């Protein structure tokens, strides 16, 4: 059955389908790989507390703004912005905010699927290990610490493997997006998200019972004010945005398939709460086994792809838990890559009047080209620094360049202009009729979108572009020692 929205387009078949799909979009590698790594690199509790504040004060107001624009426009993101602008008597150029979002979503898609490919490789490693060593034993039995450590660098340096796995991950994503909103995108969320939650809760219980749970709680939830430096704050706010899928017109696109009856404020709160809970639980899932194995919870991709496999080496049922873990990560990544692919696809469908399968194929083909460059950037093309002439991108390979470009520039810019658009430009009656808020919350939201979000986003943006200046400023304000505002991938 193809569900339709009030305009007769394909859309979510129910409110819960929308909620699951939006949670599927939000919950992804950002929650499972990036959040624990950022918390690890940025001193635990201070980062976690500030992250939650960013979600509530900046993330949720922008999330509601994005879904509101989409639901009102009932079209691909740029057209939705244009409709809201026209009905508010504002310039049509506001649609450029969404066009930038479409471009960002495409760029994120192109490297996100490379990381998805790495996850596929680890699934394969643990399946092979399970077959070789049996169900009950620890993972990688008989392999030395160094040999397990070397698995990750060996994989990312192997061009053919990373390129092919990227193409496979893209093809799986294409398979669902090409089938449409209610027939494909929704299905993947409705089936995979519940399975994801079961796996997450199961592995976390195992980890908390058998691992260093007390140390983990102390680490993640002890607030030490001196650790809250400018660097930590910037990392937290960037992470909050990436995790809620904001600034790439993703929630605008998903919002366009929501029917008129749905209360957007309530659903946005559910989506935000679910995303934040998953990030926190991911910390409670990963750190107890890492700490119990005597390893340091470090930052970066190494936490998931190197440290964690060592931890699985130390525990009973290590291969099985390792496999379950990477299947869970794969599910989360897929429901996010589906959202990332839908954003440019919906735009191509609307813009060029192409049938959905053709539009999705076109987007996939282009993403495959960019993805191949990203996949090779950790090996053969590691010396290629496409924007290396700009200080912000110095020394960065293709994948890291796209990551920095989107997370530090285009995503905060998209979110900043969205907040300004809804707070200052869009017709107040139009906004009020869509947002589902009343009373004090309504005033609070309006204040946040008009004043707090734009200012905070401007600071984030400047902090990302001029890390050294930001560091000096923080130091001058007594905000602790800051060397740079580098955000770990
Ligand atoms: N929020 C996703 C994650 O945490 C990533 C994403 C960004 C998905 C933007 C869609 C749009 O992994």
- Helix count from the secondary structure assignment: 20
- The succession of helices and strands, N to C, reads HHHHHHHHHHHHHHHHHHHH
What number is the mean pLDDT?
Answer: 91
Distance between the termini: 40 Å
Helical content stands at over 70%
The helix/strand class is mainly alpha
Poorly predicted segments: 480-489
| Beta fraction | under 5%
Bound heterogens, unique: phenylalanine
Over all CA atoms, what is the radius of gyration? 22 Å
Tags for this entry?
489 residues, mainly alpha, 0% strand, disordered C terminus, binds phenylalanine
Short description:
The chain is mainly α and 489 residues long. It is 75% helix and 0% strand.
Description:
The chain starts with 14 loop residues before the first helix and ends in a 13-residue tail after the last helix. It is globular. With 489 residues, the protein is mainly alpha-helical. The protein contains 20 helices and no strands. Helices cover 75% and strands 0% of the residues. Bound molecules: phenylalanine. Residues 25-26, 28-31, 105, 108, 242-243, 245, 248, 250, 336, 339-340 line the site of phenylalanine.
List the helices and strands and how they pair.
Elements: H1 15-26, H2 29-41, H3 45-73, H4 77-87, H5 95-133, H6 145-149, H7 151-157, H8 159-177, H9 181-210, H10 213-221, H11 230-243, H12 250-255, H13 264-292, H14 302-314, H15 318-352, H16 356-376, H17 398-425, H18 428-435, H19 439-465, H20 467-476
Bound molecules: phenylalanine.
């Amino acid at each position: 059955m193809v569900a339709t929205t009030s305009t007769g387009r394909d859309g979510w078949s129910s409110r819960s389908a929308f909620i699951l799909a939006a949670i599927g979009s939000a919950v992804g590698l950002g929650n499972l790989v990036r959040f624990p790594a950022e918390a690890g690199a940025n001193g635990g509790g201070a980062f976690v507390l500030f992250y939650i504040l960013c979600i509530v004060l900046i993330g949720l107001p922008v999330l509601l703004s994005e879904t509101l624009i989409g639901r009102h426009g009932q079209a691909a993101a740029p057209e939705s912005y244009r409709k809201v602008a026209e009905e508010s008597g504002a310039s049509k150029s506001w649609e450029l905010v969404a066009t930038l979002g479409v471009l960002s979503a495409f760029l994120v898609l192109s490297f996100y699927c490379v990381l998805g490919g790495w996850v596929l490789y680890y699934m394969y490693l643990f399946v092979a290990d399970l077959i070789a060593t049996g169900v009950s034993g620890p993972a990688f039995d008989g392999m030395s610490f160094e040999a397990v450590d070397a698995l990750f660098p060996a994989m990312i340096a192997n061009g053919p493997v990373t390129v092919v796995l990227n193409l496979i991950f893209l093809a799986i994503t294409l398979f669902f997006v090409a089938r449409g909103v209610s027939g494909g995108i929704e299905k993947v969320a409705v089936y995979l998200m519940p399975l994801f939650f079961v796996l997450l809760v199961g592995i976390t219980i195992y980890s908390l019972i058998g691992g260093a749970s007390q140390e983990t709680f102390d680490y993640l939830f002890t607030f030490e004010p001196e650790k809250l430096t400018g660097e930590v704050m910037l990392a937290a706010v960037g992470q909050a945005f990436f995790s809620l899928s904001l600034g790439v017109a993703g929630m605008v696109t998903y919002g366009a398939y929501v029917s008129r009856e749905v209360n957007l404020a309530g659903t946005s709160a559910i989506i935000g709460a679910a995303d934040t809970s998953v990030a926190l639980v991911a910390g409670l899932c990963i750190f107890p086994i890492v700490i119990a194995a005597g390893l340091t919870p470090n930052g970066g991709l190494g936490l998931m792809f190197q440290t964690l496999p060592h931890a699985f080496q130390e525990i009973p049922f290590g291969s099985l838990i390792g496999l379950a873990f990477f299947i869970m990560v794969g599910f989360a990544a897929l429901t996010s890559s589906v959202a990332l692919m839908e954003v440019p696809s919906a735009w191509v469908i609307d813009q060029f009047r192409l049938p959905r399968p053709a539009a999705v194929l076109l987007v996939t083909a282009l993403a495959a080209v960019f993805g191949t460059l990203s996949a090779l950037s950790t090996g053969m093309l590691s010396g290629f620094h496409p924007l290396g002439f700009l200080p912000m991108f110095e020394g960065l390979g293709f994948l890291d360049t796209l990551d920095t470009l989107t997370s530090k520039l285009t995503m905060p810019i998209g979110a900043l202009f969205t907040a300004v658009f809804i707070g200052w430009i869009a017709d107040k009656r139009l906004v009020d009729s869509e947002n589902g808020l009343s009373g004090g919350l309504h005033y609070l939201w309006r204040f946040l979108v008009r004043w707090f979000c734009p200012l905070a986003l401007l600071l984030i943006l400047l902090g990302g572009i001029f890390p050294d200046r930001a560091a000096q400023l923080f130091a001058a304000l007594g905000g602790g020692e800051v060397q740079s505002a580098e955000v770990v991938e």
